Every structure is written in structure tokens, then in C-alpha cells.
Amino acid sequence: MELKWLGIAMVMFGSVCTGLWYRLRYLGRLTNLRECQRALTILRGEIQYGRTPLPEACQEVERRICGAGQLFFRQVAGKLFEGNAPVEQIWRESAEEIFSSMQMKTQEREEWIRLGSTLGYLDVEMQLRSLDLYLQHLQTSIDQAGAECRSRTRLYPLLGTFCGVLICLVLV
Amino acid sequence: MYQDEILPLLPERIRRLVQKYVTGEKDLQEIRIRRGKPLVLQYRGELFAPDMHGQVVSEAEFKEVLSRISRYSLYAFEEEIRKGYLTIPGGHRIGVLGHTVLEKKEIKTMRHISFLNIRISHEIPGCADKLLPFVFEGERFLSTLLVSPPGGGKTTMLRDLIRQLATGGENFRGRNVSVVDERSEIAGCYMGLPQKQLGKYCDVVDACPKDIGIMMVIRSMAPEVVAVDEVGSEKDFEALRYALTSGCSLLATIHGSSLEQMKEKPMFEPIFRSGMFERLIFLGDRRSPGSCQAIYDGRGERIWS
Fold first, then answer.
1. Which pTM does this prediction carry?
2. Which positions in chain A touch B67 (Cβ < 8 Å)?
3. At what angle are helices A68-82 and A54-64 packed, to 10 degrees?
């Protein structure tokens, strides 16, 4: 009898945890997108107001953010200072290495990688425009992720609990 | 210098081509990179196109050079791009051309840059030795103007003259020389420090317009000689006149090919009107850079040829 209750408890625990894990995934995606937005806003400011060269601007972004974004900009700044590869390649390789473990949709990751191909060779007006365009796309993704988050962060734990109850009922 | 400052700017394929064909780096004057066209070198005074097997400089390669010369930040060089050139560490000047965007009849910026000319700055200690006997009158340094067409070695000669004046030699003492380096070409300053050898009595104001810089150095550094590269505007001549009346000697360069051609053009008139230069030294063209063709005194009398 005790074994049965132990089994039910384990199934319920597993189901609720799965629901919570999905909830955290959605929250993580939103946090990551917001972190990218913050990083690019800092980068934009450095370009617009300081005309700071890209290696130093990336270094400044790295100082002012945290998490995976900080790792990304640290790596990009370091490689730009070495100057051995085109910025597009440095940006893409760093994104593939660091952003692969981040909660982001494939399309969002690809757009971030594409941003690297617009950096470094444009005049200030065009450079700011290309960043603004990307920031607009990012804002749309953040709005979508926020809306999904609001509904799904409540849905997944509930779904997990119901699934657990269902499995228990079927098995018992 | 060329290994550390020029080659890293070039994409792999172009770098290999330049390394393959250029054996004496001192003879390489220019690397011309045009989008969608073959690579061209100005080497040993001649234009030369390395064999690219029918291929051209690709869009990606051009973009790579452009982002490397600007340290991945073309936007940070807006003012330089507007003037049509930028200077990289080492004092090498890179000419840029493309589609200009005008605002109120002035160039606001340049887009779709498609033509680059990497002009390699040379440092040849001693190249001005042959000129020294002509630019002194006793202990006094005579105001000197170096004249040549583009690529004639004016800046290299000017740099060595500055170095010798600011160091001193067997027959003359070293003196305070102030350099107004508007294009960062003479001293090749990086973070304010000259990368070229300019002598121990030399001060440099970097990236400053010539007319403003000349006034500044006269007030602040009390120079005996004021040196500037590529004078040309009325403002430049006015500032040079002020330096002269302040008791300084002048050392300058200007684009030109012969005394007769210079006398014909109104823009050169201030030089002859006030006789501000006591020596006019004509150098060779890009086929024989640094060679001295003729030397005139301030009245236009030939004293050497």
C-alpha cells in the first residue's frame, strides 16, 4: 500500500516538475530576449553618442550586462581586438557557440547571427538604422514571448498536474 | 612595419597575392583595391596587376578590407570618410571613394565605398641628406617648400628633414621643430604618440587643421621651425605667414610639378607674392619618388638641377 502511495507521489512530482520546467523555459526565453535588447541598446548608444569603435563598444556592453550575453560580448570584443577575422565570422561563431544553450527560437537565433553581417562597414546613419531595424524585430519577439508567457506559464504547471493525476488514475 | 601594419588589413587571398609579387617592401607604394575589379599595385614606380586568374576582388573581400581598416567601425571615421581618406596606425593613408551624399552643397557622408587606395608610408632615414647643404645659411635654417606631384615622396622627405633638424647633425645644431600633422601622416601618431622617428626636439600636434595648429604651436611650444604637410588653402598660407613673422622658419610640402606651372596658377600666388619660402625643392614623380629634380631660391633663381 505504502509503495502505491510512494509511486503516486513520484508520478505527481515528476509531472509537476515537467510542467514547471516548461514554464521556466518560456520565462528564460523572455529573459534572454530582453537581455539581447538591453545589450543592443547599450551598443547603439555607444555608436550614436560616443562613435566608439566596435571592439571597445562590445567591451563596454560586456561590462554592463550579465549572463550569456556577457560571455558573448566578451568573446566578440576579444576577437575583434585580435583582428584576425571578419566581424561577421566572429559574431556568427560566438553566437553559435554561446547562444546554442540559450532559450531562443531558431529564427531568433538566426536573426541575431544575421545582425553581425551589418556591423562594421556602414556609416553611422546606416549602422544605427540597421540596429534599429533589428531592435524592432526583437521588440516584436519580446511582445510575442510575453503574451505566450502569460498564458503558458499558468498552463504548463496545471497541465503537468493534470497529466500526473491522469497517469495515477489510469495506473491505480 | 609593412608586415605588421599593412598585411593584416588584407583578406587571405589578396594578402597571399601581395606577398607573392612584392619582394622589396620599400618599393611598394600603393595597393589599389576596387570592388569587382582586379587588384593593382604601384610597385617600383610602375602600375602592376598581379595575376588573379581572371578573378576580381569580391564583395566580401572588399567589405573585409573596409571593416579592417576602420577597426570594424567605419561609423567612427565619419569625418575622415567625408574628406576622402583615413589614416591608420603607422601613418599610412587610405584613400576612399564611393557615392557621396550631399547636404547644403557639402559632402555629408560617403556610401557604397568601392575604391580604396592604401598608400604605404615609408620611413627612409637619411633620404634628405642630399638636401641639407641647400637648406642652411650658416646656422640659420632657410624656410623650405618641397614640391612634387602625388606619390613623389614629399612626406617621406619632409619626415626625414624634420628628424634631422630635430636631432642635429655634424654641421648644424638640433632645434625645436613643431609638426602640425593634420592627416596623422608625418608622425603616424597613435594615441598621441608618434610612431615614426622624428628626433628628440620635435613636438607634434596630431589631427589638427593646419591653420589652427600653426597658431597653437607658436603660442604653446615656441618652435624654431614649423613643419606642415600639403599646404594649399589661403588659410594655410595666412597661418604660415604669421609663423614667419613670429620668427619661425617654415618647412612645408605642396602638390606641383614645375616652377613654371606653379607660377601660372593663382593658388600658388601667395608663395611668390610674399617670398615666404627661401628654398623651393622640386622632387620627382611617382616613377622616381624622392629624387631631387631642381632647387630654386626664394626669387625663383635655379641654384641646383
1. 0.77
2. 86-87, 120-121
3. 160
